[in-house]
Specification:
The structure holds two protein chains of two kinds.
Chain A: E1 4-7, E2 10-14, E3 19-25, E4 30-38, E5 44-51, E6 56-59, E7 62-67, E8 72-77, E9 86-94, E10 101-103, E11 107-112
Parallel strand pairs in A: 2-11
Antiparallel strand pairs in A: 1-3, 3-8, 4-5, 4-9, 6-7, 7-8, 9-10, 9-11
Chain B: E1 4-7, E2 10-13, E3 19-25, E4 31-37, E5 43-51, E6 54-57, E7 64-66, E8 76-78, E9 87-94, E10 104-105, E11 109-113
Parallel strand pairs in B: 2-11
Antiparallel strand pairs in B: 1-3, 3-8, 4-5, 4-9, 5-6, 7-8, 9-10, 9-11
The chains are: A mainly beta, B mainly beta.
Chain lengths: ~110, ~110
């Protein structure tokens, strides 16, 4: 059974700092990995999707990497801003199944002034 | 495009009551999903559908039922509400299976069973 773990569970950084969020998964047979942002009381917003054949994806100040063989992904946020404060979730899509996602429990990020 | 919409936003039920959570998407996506998110936890898949008339169980289907009569709509029914079903419910959709297709999420329905 696929298990997805995110460390740390919570993180507080001052504005302007670069930071890394970690995601690990136990079964490397995945189609892709997706990073989401969730604001309090809101739904999920997709940030980046990395195919199993890719090593990284970039969008603005965000960079996500994938090392499928070791079961790890990182989300790098450059020059953090207070508006980045949210919970970040990673989810893996299983290979050979109908698009099912397994989610981690998330990292709650607070960027302070 | 409205994307994925869910109604209601909030609901309080008494034990044993039933209700239907509505989900509609206007992106012509074949795949639709229902997840629940308990406090401090990740999302768990309840049911999913790969097209009209086709549904299948996810990880936590007990106590729920679904139907998919149209491409746009994927309602989730709770027949006999229990306190363990207190959660936030998210509906999602994607265009098809395969590695390039993101899942798009609705804003969620916050359900409390007392």
């Amino acid at each position: 059974k696929q298990e997805v773990t995110q460390i740390p569970a919570a993180l507080s950084v001052p504005e302007g700092e670069n930071l890394v969020l970690n995601c690990s998964f136990t079964d490397s047979a995945i189609y892709n990995l997706q990073w989401f942002r969730q604001d309090p009381g809101k739904g999920l917003t997709s940030l980046l999707l990395i195919q199993s054949s890719q090593r990284e994806q970039t969008s603005g100040r965000l960079n996500a990497s994938l090392d499928k063989s070791s079961g790890r992904s990182t989300l790098y946020i450059a020059a953090s801003q207070p508006g980045d404060s949210a919970t970040y979730l990673c989810a893996v899509r299983h290979a050979g199944t109908a698009s099912k996602l397994t989610f981690g429990t998330g990292t709650r990020l607070q960027v302070t002034l | 495009n409205a994307g994925v919409t869910q109604t209601p936003k909030f609901r309080i039920l008494k034990i044993g009551q039933s209700m239907t959570l509505q989900c509609t998407q206007d992106m012509n996506h074949n795949y639709m999903y229902w997840y629940r998110q308990d406090p401090g936890m990740g999302l768990k898949l309840i049911y999913y559908s790969v097209g009209a008339g086709i549904t299948d169980k996810g990880e936590v289907p007990n106590g729920y039922n679904v139907s998919r009569s149209t491409t746009e709509d994927f309602p989730l029914r709770l027949e006999l509400a229990a306190p363990s079903q207190t959660s936030v419910y998210f509906c999602a959709s994607s265009s098809s299976d395969g590695g390039y297709n993101e899942q798009f999420f609705g804003p969620g329905t916050r359900l409390t069973v007392l």
